Amino acid sequence: MLRDCNYNKVKLLHDLSKITSYIRRHAKKDAEQEGHVLCTSMYEELEADLEKHIEKLRLAVEGLSKESKFH
């Protein structure tokens, strides 16, 4: 079983990935279809911000794994 801190990283990575996928597949498309330019822009900004955090979490998990500290 993963320790709490490592579990939290993986859980956040998973959940944030699901949110960005939802933004790509549904939120942005719906906003574009409705002609809501500000909403589309907001979703794009949110997606970019989440991608930055996803990358940080991914690197943290990868680094711990390489150091055999991912328990």
Question: How is this structure best described in words?
Answer:
The chain is 86% helix and 0% strand. The mean pLDDT is 90. It has 71 residues and is mainly α. It has helices spanning 4-34, 37-66. It has one domain (4-58). Helix 1 packs antiparallel against helix 2. It contains two helices and no strands.
Q: Strands, helices and their partners?
A:
Layout: H1 4-34, H2 37-66
Q: Briefly, what is this?
A:
By secondary structure, the chain is mostly helical.
Radius of gyration: 16 Å
Distance between the termini: 7 Å
Shape: elongated
For the report, how would you describe the main beta sheet? none
**What is the beta-strand fraction?**
under 5%
Order of helices and strands: HH
Provide tags for this entry.
71 residues; mainly alpha
